Amino acid sequence: MIGLEQRDRAKRLGCDSTGGITRAAVINDSPGNDNVIEDNVIKNNVIKDKVIKDKVWGEAHLDDFHRDMLFLLHDVARLLRVEADKRARQHGMTRAQWAILIWLERQPGISQKELSELLEVEPITVARLIDRLQARGMVERRPDPRDRRIWRLHLLSPARDVLHEIDGHRADMTRIVTNGIDEATLETMTEALLRMKATLTQDSHAKRGLDADTREEV
């Protein structure tokens, strides 16, 4: 029977269970094997260190990505849209229809073209959405008294009840998204977002003016 010390040596050298020397044993027991083993240990440690460093760098890089301001702005807006879509569907409507009702409450009598610019969608899309709201008795088109080619949009009584429900959902979503954030921070965030919006709006208008000037020159 092979003793404990012999079994350990057999395991290290690659011997079989009977104590016979395998091919691996011949290789392992060759001159200079200690140096080879030491080199392999060093290489393995280097590989492990690299793997650990890569993992730490990857985690730090991912954390930087998640804290990127533009990414956060986009992702928060996306999550809010998803939540609004879900709530609108519960009432048999869409987020776009909700948005139209909100804008018509704020700016009664605007035209379909003006509404399409506010929503940043094609006029034909707005026309189809208005058709659906009109069919539900929430919106009506009235001809512009100064230009019969223009239709002015107005809310009807059934839309008021829906707007009341929308206000409740907006308040609930605001409560959820601002949970744990103090008033001072919220005020700072609001001011910062207003500043960003104003800057981007001015830049957009400036580019439109430049494009118009370029077309006129051509």
What's the quick description here?
The protein contains nine helices and two strands; from the N terminus they run αααααααββαα.
Notes on the protein architecture:
- By secondary structure, this protein is mainly alpha-helical.
- The protein is built from nine helices and two strands; from the N terminus they run H-H-H-H-H-H-H-E-E-H-H.
- It has helices at residues 4-13, 23-28, 33-66, 69-89, 95-106, 112-119, 123-135, 157-177, 183-217, and strands at 139-143, 151-155.
- The chain has a two-stranded antiparallel sheet with strand order 1-2.
- Helix 6 packs across helix 7.
Category from helices, strands and their pairing: mainly alpha
Poorly predicted regions are 9-27
Judging from the principal axes of the Cα atoms, what is the shape? elongated
What's the count of strands? 2
> Helical element count?
9
What is the N-to-C succession of helices and strands?
HHHHHHHEEHH
